[in-house]
Amino acid sequence: MNTGMNEDPLALLPELFLLGGAVVGLLLGSWLPRRRQGAVRWLATLAAAAGLLATLARPAAGPVFADAYLVDTATTSVRVIVLVAVPAVLWLAADAVAGHRRETEFAVLVQLGGLGAVVLAGANDLLLLFAAFLLASVPLYALVGWAADARATEAAMKYYLTGAFSGVAMITGIALLYGAGGATGYPALREGLAAGPAAVAGVGVVALLVGLAFKAGAVPAQFWVPDVVDGTPAPVAAVVTTLPKIGALVAAYRLVVQALPAGVVPWPVLLAVLAAASMTLGNLAAFTQDSLQRLLAYSTVSQVGYLLMAVAVAGVPEALPGLLFYLAGYAVTNVGAFAVLAALPGLRAVADARGLARAHPVLTGALVVCLLGLVGTPPTAVFLGKLALFTAAVDGGMAWLTVFAVVNTVASVFYYLRWIAAAFRTGEGSVRRLARRPAAVAVASAVGSVLLGVAGGLVLPLLIG
């Protein structure tokens, strides 16, 4: 590992903009009257825009700060995704939080959670990885309980307890890997593990992956997902099913490629099994769900299964571009689906969607695009992402996993179509009042999913790192 600090604060401008937006926003909200706290949301939007410009102006800077943080194609891609997702979530929540006495805290917690996701993706050292895990977790524990009602409090407690146990497993894994490899920086750790005790390294890797699986919502740490998502408002559910997942999956990819030597730990088989289990469990559980937020919760578990395919075959040329593109498509599509729920507060169960197409045809169109996008229907972005990952799995010698994923993709059509079919049925559901700002986010997300899919041929080559 580099013994010099090689500090380059300018390389962290996007992260600093997110942090600055949160800190300044918190101070600003402390002085603003309740009806004026929307200014904090505007500040957060400007900070995200500034961070996005800084990312595009300097897309890569290499390792910085004693090589503990790596600014490369993966980190740059996660920055772009998060810096687009954060303002999208803030504006889909605008109608629900406007005038609330904790409106400022909502914006601040979302920004800090987004910052944690970015740092997770860029971490090139085990200690920084764990610090990023905490940064991506603690603000979201508070965000889940933000509504301060009985359901939200229960959800926050379950989220916190699961996170605490996963954090203990993760720090234990880090200690074991340090003991086996004699370093925390990924390059030096890779060399140390090649000569260290394989059994200790294996246990350490498994324990470390438990923590990342918790952040991603993957098996075996997926138990919190349905209860937390169903117990929180739709905007909060959009955050916890999108932002931490992005950082955790890229962190897992970086870990296995840069820190784990080939042959010492059989991580490809382990991750392939977790991928297959996640996509299957998520789909099977979603079939019988009547609550729409629980349905989307299990949908996110299944989506992690497909995304983990890239980590299982990490190193195959198509794996990293496919993972990054899939994450971008998933983020915009998943936010769009939850934006529909935020736009229609009365839409809680499948039966509530009756008459939706007649009452709100444009919003219904956005819903159809987002749900079919989650399936992976062309020309949406998730379709190209899945195609890239299926190809990577075949090239990586895991054709069986591709077959597994195709079967699960076909099966998932059933529960998404239940919601779509209900929207086109005649009758009176519970859909009446429309919140315009989340509706606009839903439409923009649907359009973005299609445009990203159409432009995939141009975007995918840019993601080759």
Largest sheet: 2 strands, antiparallel
Helix proportion range? over 70%
Q: What is the molecular shape? A: globular
**In angstroms, what is the radius of gyration?**
21 Å
Strand content: under 5%
Number of strands: 2
Order of helices and strands: HHEEHHHHHHHHHHHHHHHHHHHH
Q: pLDDT below 50 for ≥5 consecutive residues: which ranges?
A: none
Query: Structural class of the secondary structure composition?
Result: mainly alpha
Largest sheet, spatial ordering of strands: 1-2
Terminal Cα span? 21 Å
Quaternary structure state of the chains depicted: single chain
Number of domains: 2
Mean pLDDT value: 92
Number of helices: 22
Give a concise summary:
The protein is an all-alpha fold and 465 residues long.
Notes on the protein architecture:
By secondary structure, the protein is mainly α. The protein is built from 22 helices and 2 strands. A two-stranded antiparallel sheet has the order 1-2. α1 packs antiparallel against α5, α3 (73-92) packs antiparallel against α5 (103-122) and α13 (243-258) runs parallel beside α15 (292-312). The radius of gyration is 21 Å and the shape is globular. The two termini are 21 Å apart. The relative contact order is 0.10.
